[in-house]
Amino acid sequence: MKAMPKIGTRVSYRSVVCGRVRECSGVVVAHYPGYGEECRDEETGETWISPDHVGVKVDSIPEWWAYPGTDRFAPDIAELRKA
Q1: Pairwise CA distance, residues 83 & 70, whole Å
Q2: CA–CA separation, 3 and 5 (whole Å)
Q3: Parent domain of 58
Q4: Is residue 68 part of a domain?
Q5: What is the pLDDT of residues 9-51, one digit of tens each?
Q6: Cβ distance 42 to 22 under 8 Å?
């Protein structure tokens, strides 16, 4: 997505990490604007603009889940598609 989806929007997430596909779907429950602020890595000096993120409550916890104790995570909106 290029724009912040409205709270309540159904979304799907898909990424490939180390050759493994990670997918899930859920509902947007929160907004975390990046405010266009520039971030800087202290070790490398690399800079980037902080992207917008949203809180997603997943329909069911997938096998690859890395967030114990919660059914929510906050991906970058560029990683999401409307479900």
Answers
A1: 21
A2: 6
A3: 10-82
A4: yes
A5: 999 999 998 999 999 999 999 999 988 888 899 999 999 888 9
A6: no
